[in-house]
Amino acid sequence: MSALKKTLLLSSLTALIALGLSCKPTPKTEDSVTDSKGITSKKMVFNYLRGTAHKSLDPMKQFDSASADLVANIYDRLFEYHYLKRPYELSPVLLSEMPTLSEDGLTYNFTLKKGVRFIDDPCFKGGKGRELVTDDIIYSIKRFADSNVNMLSYMLVEGSIVGLDEFHAETKKLGKETNYAKLPVAGLKKIDDQKFSITLTRKNPLALLPFAATQISIVAKEAVDKYIEDFERHPVGTGPFYIKEYSRRGVMVLAKNPNYHGTYPAEGDSGDKESGLLADAGKKIPFIDEIHLPLIEEPQPAMLKFQKGQIDWIGLDKDNFNKMAYKDEQGFHLNETYSKKFDMYAEMGLVMEYLVFNMKDPLLGKNKALRQAIAYALDTKGYIEKMRNGRGEPLKSITPIPIAGSQAQTETDYYSYNKEMALKKLAEAGYPNGEGLPEIVIEYRSANSATRQDFEFLRNQLSTVGITLKPGFQTFSAFLTKIESGNFQMATAGWAADYPDAENFYQLLYGPNSSPGPNHSAWANAEYDKLYKDSKYLPNGPERYAIFAKMHKILQDEVPVIITWNPIYFGLFQKWVGNMKRNMMQDAPFKYLKIDTAGKKKGV
Amino acid sequence: MVGYIIRRLLYMIPILLGVALLVFTLFTTVGEDPVRIALGNHASPEAITELRSKWGLNQPLHLQFLDFLKQIITFDYGRSFNTGEKLSALFAQGALVSLSLTLPPFLLAVMLNVSMALVVAYYRGSIFDRFATAFFIMAMSISYLVYIIAFQYILAFQFDLFPINGYEAGFRAIPYLVLPGIIIIFVSMGPDVRMYRTVFLDEIKSDYVRTARSKGAAEPRVLFKHILKNAMIPILTYTVVAIPFLVLGAFLMERFFSIPGIGDLMINAINTGDFPVLKGLTMYIAIGYSIFNLITDILYAYVDPRVKLD
Amino acid sequence: MSTQVANNSLGRRALQKLLRQKLTVICFVVIIIYLSIALLGALNLLPDFQARVGESYEPPSLSIAKIFGTDIFGRSVLFKLLAGTKTAISIGFLVTSIAVPIGITLGSLAGYYGGKIDGFVVWLFSVIVSVPYLLMVIAISYVLGKGMLSMCIAMGSIGWVGLCRLIRAEFLKHKEREYVLAARLLGANDYNLIFKQILPNVLHLAIITASLQVLGAIKSEVILTYLGVGVQDGSSWGSMISDATGELVNGHWWPLAGVVITMFFIIYALNVVGDALRDALDPKLVD
Description:
Chain A is an alpha+beta fold.
């Protein structure tokens, strides 16, 4: 009896495993593809992943990076940040050249590229994609400013284009009655089907930057009108790819737009030529036929798949960095076993991490010495070494290092760990050795093991000078509510550049930007605010940097926030991936990448 | 019989009302605020009010609840806050995927575990019994999470026996579902075999078995004919009611193996306060649960003639 | 009166029976050790797990603090495990002490009295079991604010359902049995019938359920902490396992090994003792 049962059990288990073995799917990357001339060639498939599911593929309705990555590949914008050049600069996408500025410095004149077509779609007459015209640009900018459509990102252009704020307000009043044709915007002028102009409210060197954001992608009115609520799942763009299979929580498949108008950049930074990044200069893009984007939410399977060669590119997180790479004086390297198989990049992020004090808190807000004591007690360098494997740099100004006007230009200094000074300031604050100091609560926006470990580090640090820290691990919405209502003591924060300019970071402490704006400390300093306004519309240069240095001095003395560090981002890619240069303003530059299919087959 | 079924179906109404009230209270008064999540950092108060009214969250609670009841009756829960997708399509798709992940291993596990429990019960008290019990308890003493991580790492990655993760529509999904299936079976073994063994032991010690045995019935026959039949009642209770929850899949499994089922959908909905998804899912599960309960009771009567349906 | 005597001797005989089994005794001792650790933790007598005892990620070595190595901050994994033991035992007992009394009371009242009381209890647990467990626990945790206590209340306020159903079903069976009918004829009142006659006969179910409940709670803590609703500060096995998922790929196996071993013994012991209690307490088996 038992023998029988055991055999049954064993055989069924064996059968299961055999089933698994026999059905192992073969990778589909070797399929062939036939082009319009009837020539059959190997299909170039790029395998990547999505770590979170996107919210919307309607360019104007999305503001999360998962959506933006897809939108950037399906739609085009007027500009993008040049793929190869650093520091980041704008380069035209839908325009034949960079716009010209009128003599008074207020009006930009644009000329559209000829022969740009939307992809074929039933929403167009005869199902054939029509050519892009000026009306599409004006329609898209209006749709972006329509408060019934876009509730998330209008602040990107707020106040900068003549008549657009009024349009925005009007759409709010009209609601569903909004009719763009009846609401002209003075600053948006059609000259002909190819030419248009945009008039600014004042001289503003930053005015063009928002047009590189995916939220101002160019859409076709026909598609919006036809698909209405389903438009966000049925994109129709002029971009390098179109959606072949829509599966939000499964595998999204993007396929090449064979009529795409773009070409590979003709020039790059010094060194790009040597590293082969300009081999395809001037060639028609995209090179890749298909992009497969499965949703993989857990890091373990993603990394296992990458190591098996089933994914071509992956971000390198802290744990895997530990195992696969190391840091020495020359920089970051892959371990030998991995460097034979993969390539790695390390790119400074456009991100500033910091801690916020609530200036309305009766304990922290009124006690400058206490805030300074905490700033002295933090060991940011140690934190980066220990908790982040050295994958970052301590910041000495509020601006991330790759952006013009950061610490290299301002030549500023900042707090570093100094126990004596911390104790001295603590005594000055009225709490010698922390005696009599109540517990301070610091808020986190999630409760995963990473935030828990971060807190442990901070708690350890501050306890060395007698400051007791308690964590408040919040859900995201609870965190926002707490922070914006000013009901907190300390909070963790980070800011990623909306556009690569220092202004985007100095505005974080501008008085009028207090909650629900980004200045959660509710700190207001008349001198700082004046300097901020002075610097905002200045072009980058010594004059502007001198003002930044003055603002930094005030921040350093008043400590409404503690500026901590600038992360470095790492990624691995397979040896068969070509044209890879990490661009922090283009997270999914699939149109420039290529695959060496022959090399991949050989396992190069 | 028909009268009984109708009465039971009517009884579902108060239960579903209770569930609706419970879910509504839990998720409208607490949990993540979907409006704040959708609008993210630095939302203006006007934008918040606007979206709140668009989603009908500014209405008085009793009206919102009435709306919810209407949705339950019409089976139309509208669209997801998060993505604007139609929920009916979202659920139908996800449920199918989750069921294909959980149902086959569930059925296999029931058969396997009942057989193993019978064997173990038959050899009660022997070295074999002790060894088996020890083994099952050992298997139970390790966290589910550890199993997933270890099995994926060792079997799929190191030994290359299975695909690491993934999913494709239709029958092409099978290879991706085998490893998760094996984990589901493996994890169910400990608790299920122990549970069934207890049930069998209860029956073995019963008077009627002693009678049968004293009459000279051979052991295996007793085991099958009498014990299995009588033990069916608790086993049925234990298994049939678990079926509706299979729709939810196994959310950890779905996350680690990238299977686009309902479990992962639910976790994301909880984390983003996507009420329409949560309300819809809960009501479907509750209805399924009630129906399967009814099926269990009808099966009772079928298995055990002593039970009368009235 | 006579039943009282019978029960006493039943308990004594059960205890004797339990003590005859070596494995059970060992497992008893294991549980007592864990309980003492938890007790020491409650009295703040455990070593401070926050203290650094060495470098970051030292593998296990032969000193007490480093027997399971150290974690990322150079803290003793052993001390974290001890603190985690306190957390786990508290969770287990809190959940059980909420769930079991509710389950027994509602189950026996519903089963014994039937009618409206039964209707209400059945309605209540039907509603609760119809909602997915995880959804309920997370939702209730949100209501009460995140953290260990609210997680326990959440698990406890749902966990009584299984036991309640079992007890109710047994009461339905037992109240028709001869010994109950006989006692009723002899003039026993409801209280006597419920608590003196029927309950002792079905109590083994409560004991098995309780032992399963403790370990169910301990295991749920792991998953809930992984999802971010569980234990917020201090050390817990759940947070150690979540951390370990990242540590394992770097070859830092000892924190995970430590948790798996620590969890293994208590769960094993609880299971064995639960089984043994079941065998010993089941009146049918005492002969």
